[in-house]
Each structure stands twice: as structure tokens, then as C-alpha cells.
Amino acid sequence: MLDRLLKPVHRWVWSDPNRRGRKLLRFSETEAAGGRDLARAAELTRDPSLRRLYLRHAGDEARHAVLFRLRGRALLAALPRGREALEANWLAPGERGLDDLHVAGESEGMLLAFLHLSEKAAAHRFAAYQEVLDCDPETRDVFARVLEDEAFHMSYTRKQLARIAPRQQGLRLWQGRLDRWWKAYLRLAVALASVLGGVMLAAQYFLVLPLFALLAKRALRHEGAGLRPVRAPSPLSSQY
Length: 240
Ligand SMILES: [Fe+2]
Ligand SMILES: [Fe+2]
Prior knowledge:
The protein contains 7 helices and no strands. By secondary structure, the chain is an all-alpha fold. Helix 3 runs antiparallel to helix 4 (48-77), helix 5 (108-131) runs antiparallel to helix 6 and helix 5 (108-131) crosses helix 7 (169-221).
């Protein structure tokens, strides 16, 4: 829903080829890290069918990483060097969720709920990005290929959650949602703190610092020219 409302913003974010290339490289890192976490989950699980699914999932994420990396590099290679662009990661974050996956220590049900919610959010996001990429059909095709796998990830995690935790599936999903909202709040708080920190430092630089410069200038007017002894000479009658 939010991604639909943000469609004009997504269009702006993806309109710049430099930003597009950088974002795809960033997505590639997230997908690769997600793939490694899923390979670890496959190692840890005691359920044979989950192990098979996690391994396939890990392979998909590794392939997404390669697809995004190749397309990102091709976009950046076609550009003149030295141009910088704001990545706007908080507006178009890609497959977020896989980046905060904690495989060890999570129960099987909780991990599946978290994966399901992350994959669902990613599938909706990638669909929204795909819609605004008329200007770059090749990148749009990359998203279309990735989206097919994300739809599979979304559905298998939901079905497996229902199998592993039939009674607690709703509770696990709500726990997963609360966890994602909390992390979203923390990300927002960190971003806000960074903006406020910048504003405070700028205010200090432009408002407080000139005041001290003014006081130093005024003090300089009362200073005599040349060198002066700092202390009065010590009397010869005492040691100090
Ligand atoms: Fe992916
Ligand atoms: Fe995925």
C-alpha cells in the first residue's frame, strides 16, 4: 500500500542511472548476505524438507545477487566517471529484512514467520520498482526474474510455517510484524538523530562560533602592541 502511494517517489529514485546502478549493487550485497544466512539456516535445521527448501532459497538469493551486481555494474560502466547520486535507501530499500536475519538462536517457526514477512514485503517492493522502470527495460527484466522467485519464497515460508507451528502461526506472524516495526522505528530514529545532529552542528557553527569570534576581536582591541611579560617579575626576597 505504502509503495503504491510512493510510486512518484519511486519513479524519481529510479530515474537516475547512476543512482539505479548504485542501488542495484547495494541490493546485490543484501541478497548475497541473505543467501549466506539461508545456507546457515539449512545447516542448522533438523527438518529435511526445510533443509531442501532453505538450500534452494539460498541458491535463489545468490543468483539474485549476481543478477543485481551485473546489471548495476553495466549501468555504472556506461556512465561518465565521478558523478555522485543520493541512493535514497530509506525510500527504496529492496529486500529489507534479509539484512537483519538472525538465523542462530531463532526458533524454526519464528524464522519462517520472519522470512515470510520479509519476502512478502520484498515482492511488493520489487513489483512497485518494476512498474516505474519503463525508462530501463533491462533493469525491469531483472526485477521481473527476481520477483518470480520472491513469490515462491513468500508462499513456501507461509506453508511451512503452517506445517511447523499450526497453532502458533498467527502469533509468530504478529511477533515477526512487531519486530519489523520496531526495527523500522529504530532506523527512522537513527536517520532523524543524524539529521538533527547535522542541524545542531550547523547551528553551532553559524550562530555560536561567530559570537566567540566577535568577543575575541573585541578583546584584541584592548591588547597592547608587541611582547609583554606574562607574569610580574618575582620579588628577589622570596623563593617564588
Ligand atoms: Fe531475493
Ligand atoms: Fe527472497
